Amino acid sequence: MSEKIVIRNLYKIFGATPQAALQQVLSGVGKPELLEQHGHVLGLRDINVRMMDGEITVIMGLSGSGKSTLIRHLNRLIEPTSGEVEVDGEDVLDYGPERLRQLRQSQMSYKMLDWRRELAVRLNRRLTRKPSAGWNESGWRVMRTIFHTSYPAACSSA
To answer: Rounded distance, CA 46 to CA 132, Å?
Structure first.
């Protein structure tokens, strides 16, 4: 398989002077200190990822951990403070407006979803439609384990 997307040394710093803040981060200043002392937010720190052609890549993390920020760098909805983003061996940061439009329309697709909600909806559908022998109880067991509840309707409406 060939490399479809390569991200190297990607940094994103939000604030008035991100390049100056980047120097602080490179010298060891952490996320809390960067915000408190310099008024900048460290969105991404030294991200390095290789996504292979034909593979499905899942980016998971806690709320506020930078998942959306990372994804938006792939098609330059957000510009990086520093680093490289390549798609099919081409540096996306060198793309002009027309090439970016082509990339966004024909090569980029992603779906943001809450996997717990998605699983709850799918299990709820399965539980309410033609439950096969034995599946009903195992489905409930899965729901209770993941959602700590016995009510699939409550999970799927979250």
So the answer is: 48
| pLDDT tens per residue across span 66-90 | 999 999 999 899 999 999 999 999 9
Q: Is the dihedral of CA 138, 144, 146, 152 positive or negative?
A: positive
Higher pLDDT, residue 18 or 71: 18
Is the model more confident about 136 or about 114? 114
The alpha carbons of the chain give a radius of gyration, in whole angstroms, of 21
Q: Judge whether 81 and 22 are in contact, CB under 8 Å.
A: yes
List the structure tokens of 133.
């022998």
User: Which residues are registered as beta bridge partners of 6?
Assistant: 50, 86
Pairwise CA distance, residues 6 & 153, whole Å: 41
pTM: 0.69
Q: How far apart are CA 146 and CA 13, in angstroms?
A: 35
Amino acid identity of residue 92, one-letter, is: V
**What's the CA gap between 141 and 18, in Å, rounded?**
49
